[in-house]
Amino acid sequence: MGSKDLKLLDVFSYESLVHAVAGAMGSVTAMTVFFPLDTARLRLQVDDKRKTKSSPAILSEIIKEEGLLAPYRGWFPVICSLCCSNFVYFYCFHSLKATWLQGQRTTPGRDLIIGIAAGVVNVLVTTPLWVVNTRLKLQGAKFRNEDIQPTHYKGITDAFVQIMQQEGVGALWNGTFPSLLLVLNPAVQFMIYEGLKRQLIRGVHRELSSVEVFLIGAIAKAIATTITYPLQTVQSVLRFGQHGQPADQSRLRNSLRSVMYLLTNRVRKWGVLGLFKGLEAKLLQTVLTAALMFLLYEKIANTTFRVMGVKRGLSSG
């Protein structure tokens, strides 16, 4: 069997499929548990006239004004998008890793490069899903900013149709430019997670405990989120589609100008700290979600491999 056949086997391998399914299942469960915190974060990012408060205070306001189930508005499209996104990311990450390494020992640098490549594929494939779920999640919200126009989507399919009809097919990829920059987030997260995991395993010479996996997942996500948070805010605003971006004939130049405009406008209004508005809510949600996701992912993957009789080294991941 030639080297090309071996590489194809690495890409379409049972092990990559298990990692992808485990990652998707872990992320969906974790996001469902901490979904209200993501609702609080998104309101702070998009509704620029809402005062920054603690996550419980924001959620209390939302429930009082919009009803008990309001923190879970848009749950289904978010879960669908997250499931697809994490399946694609985990599958690409582990397929590329197996193809490139071919049994060699991995390094943080390699993990970072593989994570960036997997992130680019993920962004290009799943951005339309995230644009639609951002719109649906904010539909019916009571905004402090009166300039925001209400939308009327009946569901995921209707949102796709209306966006394409009213704004053009390209609108489904709103926020792609900052999303491509934000592939650094999961890439840095995986680099730190895999690095800490390898170091701990070398020290204890056993599978990591649930607490250890939860902690290194939390640490990795906290660092990655803090570094990339200003771009995450811009990404949310662009996906919402009511940001008044400067017009330009070149889509790439227009995207770059929109990112710079939104960043500078935020700094002008609230100073540098304005770039981190909602960070507390984001950190609380994303760190807990990522930590639980990694824990469930490891448990699901390890259990599946054990049941199927697939032997894996302790450092594999």
From TrEMBL:
Protein name in the entry: Peroxisomal membrane protein PMP34-like
Location in or out of the cell: Membrane
Membrane topology summary: Multi-pass membrane protein
Gene: LOC107709637
UniProt KW keywords: Membrane, Repeat, Transmembrane, Transmembrane helix, Transport
Residues annotated as transmembrane: 12-35, 112-132
Pfam family, one: Mito_carr
GO molecular function term, any single one: FMN transmembrane transporter activity
Family of the protein in this entry: Belongs to the mitochondrial carrier (TC 2.A.29) family.
Top-level lineage group: Eukaryota
Any one cellular-component term (Gene Ontology): peroxisomal membrane
Solcar repeat start-end pairs: 14-99, 106-199, 208-303
